[in-house]
Amino acid sequence: MMKNLFIRFGFLAILLFLMSSCGHKSTTPKRLDIPTGVVSIDTVARPSEAIQCHVHVEFAYLKGNKYAVVNDSLLRMGLLQPDYFAINYDKLTPQKAIPTFVRQYIKDYIEIAQLIRQREKSKSQLIGELSIKTELRASIDNYVTALSHISINNGNGQLTKYTIVRNFNIKDGHITTLQEQFGKDYKEKLTKEIIERIADQEDLEEDDLTGLQAKGYFTGIAPYPSDNFILTDDSTVFIYTPGEINQKEVRVAIDN
């Protein structure tokens, strides 16, 4: 009798667990089943005691000759800032492009820093830093999400951090747009949902744009869905950089 009771109890517990599991989506990120590599450079230029430029870049790319076109596209997506390669017509590879990017950034920084020193003389000490780290994540269908985490100190002691996101087709490097994913009326539809989500986070009525503006969101600008978004099977996460719609970075997730 007691044995049968334990068997029934165990079966019931397993059944409840299975029912509970079916009712919740998995939070485990999708695995990117493509071999990737990283081009990494860390260097410091010191043309004088007053001027220094530290650059650290970790750029993720896809391994294999068949991804040459995709990697070329990756380098032109604006994941690297400044975006030196946007109008470059040469064939690009991460192994050659990243050292070129670092050299150009250091050259530009030193030139500007020297001009500032000439004007302000001994008053300025320009110790600049640039850190860029990119990562690749599995997205929906044939798409991959590229994220670039950027940190800049232009030498004035103020640190700026922001994230750039691009979702691209693994076959040809094509960057997907909000219109392609959500249709021609995406602006009106997504803007409404974004306002509702931010208002909910701020304990306001879902359509209280005036209340959001009073809290420092969309001040002096019309609300809009950011082109900076992470695309997954279940949701889309919009990332607004600091100073874009608020003084701080804002992330808004909506269900697909």
Please tell me about this protein's structure.
The structure is a single chain. The protein has 256 residues and is of the alpha+beta class. It has 6 helices and 8 strands. A 5-stranded mixed beta sheet has the order 1-2-3-4-5, covered by helices on one side. A 3-stranded antiparallel beta sheet has the order 6-7-8, covered by helices on one side. The longest helix is centred in the middle third of the chain and has 27 residues, at 94-120. The relative contact order is 0.11.
List keywords for this structure.
256 residues; alpha+beta; 6 helices; disordered N terminus
Please provide a brief summary of the model.
The chain is an alpha+beta fold. The protein has helices spanning 2-22, 68-74, 94-120, 178-182, 186-201, 209-214; strands at residues 36-45, 51-62, 126-138, 143-153, 159-169, 229-231, 235-240, 250-255. It contains 6 helices and 8 strands.
Regions with little confidence, pLDDT below 50 for 5+ residues: 1-27
Quick one: overall form? flat
Tell me about the largest β-sheet. 5 strands, mixed
Mean pLDDT: 87
Strand line-up in the sheet with most strands: 1-2-3-4-5
Please count the helical segments.
6
Separation of termini? 51 Å
The succession of helices and strands, N to C, reads HEEHHEEEHHHEEE
Radius of gyration using CA atoms only: 24 Å
Beta-strand fraction estimate: 25-35%
Count the strands?
Answer: 8
The proportion of residues forming helix, as a percent range, comes to 25-40%
- Structural class, judged by helices and strands? alpha+beta
